[in-house]
Amino acid sequence: MVSAPVQLTDLIVAVASEHPDVLGRLAAAVELSGRLDELGDHLIGHFVDEARRAGASWTDIGESLGVTKQAAQKRFVPKESPDLKPRFDRYTDRARRVVVLARHHARFSEHIGTEHLLLGLLDESGGLAAKTIARLEAAEGTTRLAVLIDLDGTVRERPDPQPFTTHCKKALELAVRASLRHGHTFVGTEHLLLGLLAEEEGAAARALARTGVTREAAEAHIVREIEDAIRRGPRPAPPAA
């Protein structure tokens, strides 16, 4: 059995050191417990994704989890849905605008796809995601052009509510995972970009690959920019969100 890298005593000390009164500690413990549950879900999800990439079947994964194949798929395979996870209150202002812009780009589509989310990231030019793409793409504007070339121009009636595609839902899930992996409490444009790149199969990931924007290079650039922002001093909002 793998020993937990964080012990109960560490969590107790962390809560107690930040809150002088007992009820404040209790409220903080409840909040922290929810975050730990989320971390646990994403920890399992990470290794489910790893097993799938290695060729494991859903039957094999279900057996490892102690559930049926159907239960494993229901938990870990994203479905088309209009719901955002996490809720919008977890997103920075820029990330919220990206989703609004994605809906705008998908106004003649039946779904909101990764391509629409990527166009929203590019439109939010002040965000770290757009700046990262501009830094890494083969030539200025090539990523936007690559997306627009592949964009389905057929006008369709938009359902209400309009669902996110399964690829887009997976990218949003992976954006949360990127945020948690870096110890952030928010989801910014940079996390949305990392989610699109980690998803690998959607139209956005294909467009980014064609223009030379890789997950490794994007993550390295994002980490450097955030570290530089922290060194320059505290800011009222998450750096380059």
UniProtKB/TrEMBL annotation:
Keyword ATP-binding listed: no
SUPFAM superfamilies reported in the protein's UniProt record: Double Clp-N motif
Signal peptide, first to last residue: none
Pfam families tied to this protein: Clp_N (PF02861)
Keyword vocabulary terms for this entry: Hydrolase, Protease, Repeat
GO MF term (any one): peptidase activity
Cross-referenced InterPro entries: Clp_N_dom_sf, Clp_R_N, CLPT1/2
Ranges of residues in domain Clp R: 88-233
RNA-binding found in the keyword field: no
UniProt feature coiled coil, ranges: none
GO biological process: proteolysis
PANTHER family: ATP-DEPENDENT CLP PROTEASE ATP-BINDING SUBUNIT CLPT1, CHLOROPLASTIC (PTHR47016), CLP DOMAIN SUPERFAMILY PROTEIN (PTHR47016:SF5)
Designated name of the protein: Clp protease N-terminal domain-containing protein
Organism, as annotated: Saccharothrix hoggarensis
